Amino acid sequence: MELLVIILIPVISTILICTIGRKSIWLRNTLVLIPAVVDFILIAYLVRQVINGASYSLNLVDLPYFAIKFSIDPFSAYMALSMTFLWILTDIYSFGYMAHEHAQISYYASLTLNITAAMGIVFATNLITFFIFFELLTIAVYPLVVHEETEKAYKAGIMYGVYLLSGGAAVLFGTVILYNLTGTIQFVPGGIPALASQSKFMLTVLFVLFTVGFGFKAGLVPLHTWLPEAMIAPTPISALLHAVAVVNVGVFGFIRVIYNVFGAQLYQQMGFHHVIAVLASITIIYAAVKGLRQKEIKQMLAMSTVNQLSFMLIGIASVSLASRLGGLLHIYFHAIMKITLFYCAGAIMTQSKNKYLSKMGGLAKHMPITMTCFAIAAIGIIGLPPVCGWVSKWYLMEGYFNQGEPIFSIILILSGVIELGFFAPPIIAAFFKEEEPGAFQFERDTSKFGNEAPWTMLLPIVIVTILAVVFGVWGSVPHYLVKPALAGLMGQSF
Amino acid sequence: MDSYLPFLAVLIPVVAAPLAGILSDKVSNRFTVLCTVVTFLVVAKMYPLVSQGLILEQAFDTGLRLKLSFMADSLSLLVGMASIGLWMLASFYSVEYMLHEHHQRRYNLFSLLSLAGTLGVVFTRNLFTLYIFFEMLSMASYVMVVHEQTKEANKAGVKYLFMGIGGGLILLLSIVATYSITGTCDLVELARMKNALAGHPYTPLILFGYVIGFGAKAGIFPVHIWLPDAHPVAPSPASALLSGVMIKAGAYGIIRAVITIVGLEVLGQQPIILIIMVMGMINIFLGSAMAMKQTDIKRMLAYSSISQIGYIILGLTLLTPLGLLGGVVHIFNHAIIKGTLFLCAGAFIHQLGVRQLDELKGIGKRMPLTTLCFSMGALSMIGLPPFNGFISKWFLALGTLQVAKAGSYNMGIGILALLVLLLSSFMNLIYYGPIVYRAWFAEADTGKIKGTAEQSSSDPGLWMMVPLLILGFGTLFFGIFPQLPVQLARQFSLLCFR
Prior knowledge:
Shape of chain A: globular
Radius of gyration of chain B: 21 Å
Order of helices and strands of chain A: HHEEHHHHHHHHHHHHHHHHH
Order of helices and strands of chain B: HHEEHHHHHHHHHHHHHHHHHH
Distance between the termini of chain B: 21 Å
Shape of chain B: globular
Number of strands of chain A: 2
Helix content of chain B: over 70%
Largest sheet of chain A: 2 strands, antiparallel
Number of helices of chain A: 19
Strand content of chain A: under 5%
Largest sheet of chain B: 2 strands, antiparallel
Largest interface: A-B, 33 and 31 residues
Strand content of chain B: under 5%
Oligomer: heterodimer
Structural class of chain B: mainly alpha
Helix content of chain A: over 70%
């Protein structure tokens, strides 16, 4: 019942937004907020019970060869909780950011519908349910990518569609093969047992298909190129979907396949974890170096996202427990840090009309709060205390030391140094350098807060920044969730 | 013994820092002074307990698997006292010095954060906590370095930031490796395990990571390159803190890493300790040689710091009780000496606008008290009795002669180290001597100094003069009554070589 509400309420809200949302802004904003808030509260309420062992499930369709089923395990609760929380903030941020944009109804409708897609994905109990919502997410994000309705946006939209749908095709292909081999596509804690007796060739085929399929969404090099292009979407969308929901769903897919389809043990026997670790390492270094050469804020953040996503992959593909914990933790920690950066970038771009990194000199005088939050989040992404990014990095490195492969730990450190190279110059310029004449075009020049963005945008920025710092020294809440999540995935307690 | 004092010493500046950033400039300056005084009192309150051999500690659960824990033993108390003492005096000094500067609140904010970082590094019980504060120190002190916001400052700042954070990340690698191998980050437990890292193939690399990571902050060759650029461009009180205190956080870290984490028995078998010793010797010579060539007073002092940090490393790597004692005492003494010298240099710059060494001729007549303090600092730096610089060199020299007895090296290395010490004192004489001599006895070049020679005294006002006199006479005081640093250092050294 609870799951039905969680999944259905955004759909109802979307329909209402499309039909009566035009009447008043307040009505529309309420309709936008309700599903995110209700979902968040419901999930927060369910989390405790789930961790204590209660189970909730929902069978929407239950036919012999086709079943749409949902259930909630600690891992999906963790993902859903983090996503819905950030969804609320993004809704609030959007109210400020989109105030003067066109086509707001379609924007909010898509944004709300995506909650259903995301919740469907995380609560899916079998691959076909997962796949349906996986594709729904791809499609429902498309209107947001092309929101600008310019030539460039449509081009990016086509690229986005082609890339992600072909990724989806690979997943579907893999699902079909899996069903043929084992007769089940259910996610099983610890892996599908029947898979262990299959030939190595078929296992490799499955692995390649799933890796390619989810690799698109998780931004594995060389499948990542759609992500910087899709940055043409409005910034709250880049923040939520391209830094949190869509790409994390790719990582989520990897996790389900590794732990609930193959099973961590089989995965390691076949040596797949090494393949993922090496691919992820290549991605980490490639994206970091590429990030050095970006000229626009959002492009730089996109490359940083590609880089950070592979942190999660390198963690979950690891043999050691510490790295796995680190990978799971990094999903949430990266989400709050990267969403801060994107929110700040959006505030900077709307207020100062400047999107170039080289022209950030003196910006901190105009937007002190935004730039401070930007700097704090950047510190976290680089992996320095006391912002939360370093906690997950610590676990990742520890795990790789434990399993005797310190080379991967060194890659993580190297990535931090390179990232410092692209985050430091704009921040230093903003705080300590002189303003270039004509770099910024502020509309108003008030005294108290300089040229800060309206409070609807500033509030989410400040909240996520504070969270990032709090979790950097006191990691209780995510930690409380991540341990049972990992235990649930592996089908064993530790 | 459970005690909240070490935690409190770190907490006060952390909590006060945002306030100092909000208040108006004038109030903020005085508020900063108040905070440092309170923190000083808290640290001083630990002394009676720690000098009895107690270890004060306090731990907090973070919800992560690692704890946030604090501790004060004799080494951390000694370094902590030097840090907060100099910090307090420098913040008094800043009230007048920074009066006409821009961004005073920002300076106070990050000064307090750096203080918290330094005290955090010093008063921590595990490496996890240490790393948090170490990076906090790197980032907060960056803002102090670039305070002037000139092109030069920004350039030096970038160098500082990259070296500091790059070094910090290497440090993290070593810390994680240590944790992975030993299963603990706790310094006390690591000390108890003694040979925790023995026989592990990565041990030399881990040790090297610690030396490079902490060394990037301490200014060890070859990761010292940021130091001569960054220290002079900061405002003078900040330079004094950078040179007097913050590099000591790095030196403290190296001592902890070498003695506590790797352990003396393991070290003796590692050829890498010789490499570190040679790095220390290079520091001594390189710093002195470069200092001789400088014309800018603050740059010269910065190079002198590089040379002095070499003493500490040398004392440590001798692996003898007295050598370690000398190195630890020098942390304390050098803080006082370099604090005096930088603050005097700041007074010259602030009052008369002179930065060049040849402009200091005859300055003794214009600013007699300041020059007196500067002279005492310089003489102490050379290592003349009865100043405190002599005390540390005395113990270091004794330590070199213990080398053969302790059996860690052969006598040749001990003699070499002794020669290095003597030669370096001579080099110090070459570059500090003439300045002191000319300041008192040479005729001033008219026109180079702003203001007229007829003015009787250009010594700064009380806010600056009192800290200068305290520090200046401090070099004398701790040269005649060195009980406090020597006893604490001895306590630590005995514990290590038990």
